[in-house]
Amino acid sequence: MKRTLLLFLSLALTMILFTGTGLCAQKPITLKLAHVLAVNGHYEAGAKKFAEIVKEMSGGSIIVETYPGGVLGSERDMIEGMQLGTLDLGMVSSAPLGGFLPEMMLFDLPFIFRDRPHAWGIADGPIGTELLQRLEKKKIVGLAYWENGFRMIFSTFPIKAPSDLKGRKIRVMENKVHMRAFEALGAIPTPMAYGELFTALQQKTIDGAENSIICLTTDKFQEVCGNLALTGHFWGVVPFLMSKTVHDKLTPEQRKIIKDAAIKARDWQRQYTVDNEGRYLEELKKFGMNITEVDRNAFREICAPIYKEFYGTIPQEMIEAVLK
């Protein structure tokens, strides 16, 4: 009799612990977050921080697993995966995203942002918010804008003025605005897969490329390029996205956790990028890279006329609002 009573009490206690709150018995939701940059870079640092915040805010009921280095495909693959619901979360560049939502190429216009506060204000304000909302028609939920940093030109030859780019092959992303900008500067824009870039520079089949200081350093391009021009021609916005199919399956509380965590991690990731950009620039100097400050206005004046060429793709009023 006593044994039966003890067994009953034990079972009752187990039910209270595992079903009484409804939390412990519920299996955690696991979300996959992918990006294409290195595991030691600023994308992954932000992704880990996001996962940490989500776990804390959800009490462990939502787990985010990160997949860096393009192991789940290219940025285009990731966007398509989110549309299909086969990938939960992704950090991508605006350049490939422009192939799905052309007006997102607003962020790709050369020299349109004066500095980071200007870029952040546009991204976090009405214009950036509207663009994220437009993504929902593409079966994607825009959570926030993280960043890659301002993009610079690294090359096998020194750059001091726009004329130094004349006839030089510069690797760019396959994006109409990026290609047009380098055409205007006199270069030969050469799209190629990022994974092929190191070898192409090493074998001198191209003369240079462009990316953020952090990407340049973490991917060790200083080993095959001796020159860095601080042009800051594009601001590398990083839209942080979620599959609408996956998003819509979550409860309102879970959606709020994801959104709030994306904003908190955004602020952390931006500051991390700023801090490490300065640190890596010092490393490049110590490495022996020839780093040149350029007259950005000279480059900007050449590129400014192309804004009008994209009025049919990017709303004119958006471009003018950013410039004002």
From TrEMBL:
<dbReference type="GO" id="GO:0055085">
    <property type="term" value="P:transmembrane transport"/>
</dbReference>
<dbReference type="Pfam" id="PF03480">
    <property type="entry name" value="DctP"/>
</dbReference>
<dbReference type="InterPro" id="IPR038404">
    <property type="entry name" value="TRAP_DctP_sf"/>
</dbReference>
<keyword id="KW-0732">Signal</keyword>
<keyword id="KW-0675">Receptor</keyword>
<dbReference type="GO" id="GO:0030288">
    <property type="term" value="C:outer membrane-bounded periplasmic space"/>
</dbReference>
<dbReference type="InterPro" id="IPR018389">
    <property type="entry name" value="DctP_fam"/>
</dbReference>
<dbReference type="InterPro" id="IPR004682">
    <property type="entry name" value="TRAP_DctP"/>
</dbReference>
<dbReference type="GO" id="GO:0030246">
    <property type="term" value="F:carbohydrate binding"/>
</dbReference>
<protein>
    <submittedName>
        <fullName>Tripartite ATP-independent periplasmic transporter solute receptor, DctP family</fullName>
    </submittedName>
</protein>
